[in-house]
Amino acid sequence: MHEETAMHGLKAKGLKKGSVSKSAAVTIGLAATAPAYSLTGALGYGASESGYQLPIVFILSVIPMFFVALSYKHLTTSAPDSGTVFTWGTKAIGPRAGWFGGWALLLASMMAGVTATQITVNALAVLFSLAKIPVWFNFVVAILFIFSTTYLTALGAKESSRTTMILTFLQYGGLIALAGMLYIHILQGNAVVTAAPFSLQWFNPFEIPSFSAFLNGFLIALFIFWGFDASLAMSEETAGNSEQAGQSGIIAMIITIITYVIFSIAALAYAGIDAENQSSLTFKDNIDSTITVLVTDIIGAEGALVAALIVAISAFSATISTIMPAARVALAMSTYRAIPRKFSLVNKVTHTPQFATWMIGVMTLIIYITLSLISESIVKDAIHSVSIAVCTYYTVAALSCVFYFHRTAFNHWHTALSQVILPAIATIILIAVSIIQAWNMMDPGYGSSGSIAGIGAVFLIGVITLLIGIPLMVLWNLQEPKFFRGETLPLERAHMVPDNDDSKQQ
Predict the structure, then answer these.
(1) What is the pLDDT of residues 367-401, one digit of tens each?
(2) Residue 194 CA neighbour count, 13 Å, CB half
């Protein structure tokens, strides 16, 4: 007897194998996590919650995400399909779970585009020395930003992945240079006077002030690792075999955590966490823009311009890296008749789902402009609300791994651990985090838009936009029931077959 773990019935979609190199796949995952602007927001708030234990909180928070990354790796090896969580959820759990997981991924990707657009508008306002952002400037930058990122993505996987690589190298180059300058200043004794010197105790989890401090820091840190999975949606186009394609997410995750830990140590040792010191990470005027504060403190007034440029590059590359997988998930959903067939159109020259790509871009722009017309605070709260969608589709991915491999994994202790036990732990953690995060978001004081009927606006934005998927799914079920009956993508699990069974050859 041997394990049969490959998923069957997957369809070719017109994507070109080998158009994305293995190194480019890793950089897509790195770019999607957007380390520059993720650190800008996470360092200040994370330090205010976890203090000098932020490095160990980063390490602890990556553990469940690493378990999710393992799920992605194993599922990609079995089914290198651009639909990722949609395809896996449908095959392993059922069509409705798969459809809703795909919807959550599409929603998270578009809201990430909204986030990046707002960040780019703010960064360019700094570059142009605008104290107050005019409405025309906001919308012109938004249109140009989303159009250019969508256009580059629609050119083809090879071209867009190369662009992403260049921008990622620039972004990491800026972060490495800044980290290097911080460490030099620390060694020369030029750190902020209230900053504590580095100590190995920063890696001691028992030194975390309280469980509440750990939990709040954990929630902040957990979501800055989101995006590593972008490269897995490119598995049909990545050079090498499916197992090598599945490893790109793991590699991106490891590089990301190393980056966050090294940079957080430098920032803490240089700036400290004294909320009364104007150069501290936790000073009230610094907490939203720690990268800008650090660069300005080191190189002077020009630092704000340098930081704005690094953050803008981060936002630009992150947007390309989220449009690419979102368009391919839409392509897969359409191919298996889970959404209108128009989304399955692939350009014969670029081998790119151009209609799906442009629709993702247009919807992102519509959402951004609509929210901006309501209020700037609504845009900020929409950014915070994306965590619900992220937890939803990561939960579907981890649960898919458990369901798909549970019949074969326990033949070996290592496969039982990595294919079932650890993904199951990730599922439990993600569900718990979702509940805690949703509870926090219900607080009218969470975010900046207040409340509606006593319920926090962030919660309403996050939950309502996610639940819109249910009536959409019901309506499409009435229009195209074949997918929901399991006819286009039938349920399947890994299973044992006799060694003399030749069915695997068919």
Answers:
(1) 999 888 877 767 767 767 788 899 999 999 999 99
(2) 13
Total domains in the chain come to 1
Helix, coil or strand: residue 288: coil
Encoded tokens for 297: 């403190």
The phi and psi torsions of 24 (rounded to 5 degrees) equal: -65, -35
441 vs 451: CA distance, rounded Å: 10
Q: How far apart are CA 307 and CA 294, in angstroms?
A: 9
Cβ(474)–Cβ(484) below 8 Å: no
Q: Which domain holds residue 160?
A: 2-373+380-408+415-505
Predicted confidence at residue 72, as pLDDT, reads 93
| The two structure tokens encoding residue 231 | 């490269």
Q: What is the pTM of this model?
A: 0.91
Q: Is 91 left (phi over 0), alpha (psi -120 to 50) or beta?
A: alpha
pLDDT at 503: 46
The parts of the chain modelled with pLDDT lower than 70 are 377, 380, 383, 447-449, 451, 500-506
- Are 326 and 105 spatial neighbours (Cβ–Cβ below 8 Å)? yes
At position 224, the amino acid (one-letter code) is I
Over the range 315-333, which residues count as b (16 or more CB within 10 Å of their CB) and which as e? bbbbbbbbbbbbbbbbbbb
Name the residue with tokens 């955590």. Answer: 257
| Exposure of 403 in the CB half-sphere (CA atoms within 13 A) | 18
**Phi-psi region at 12: left, alpha or beta (left = phi > 0; alpha = psi -120 to 50):** beta
Rounded distance, CA 175 to CA 429, Å? 31
Q: Is the dihedral of CA 479, 483, 487, 488 positive or negative?
A: positive
Q: How far apart are CA 388 and CA 464, in angstroms?
A: 10
* φ/ψ (deg, to 5) at 304: -65, -40
Q: What residue type is 437 in one-letter code?
A: Q
Residue-wise DSSP of 24-85: HHHHHHHHHH-HHHHHHHHHHHHHHHHGGGHHHHHHHHHHHHHHHHHHHHHHHHH---TTTH
Residues 6+ apart with CB under 8 A from 150: 323, 357, 358, 360, 361, 362
Give the contacts of 126 (CB within 8 A, at least 6 positions apart): 292, 304, 305, 307, 308
CATH classification of the domain holding 270: 1.20.1740.10
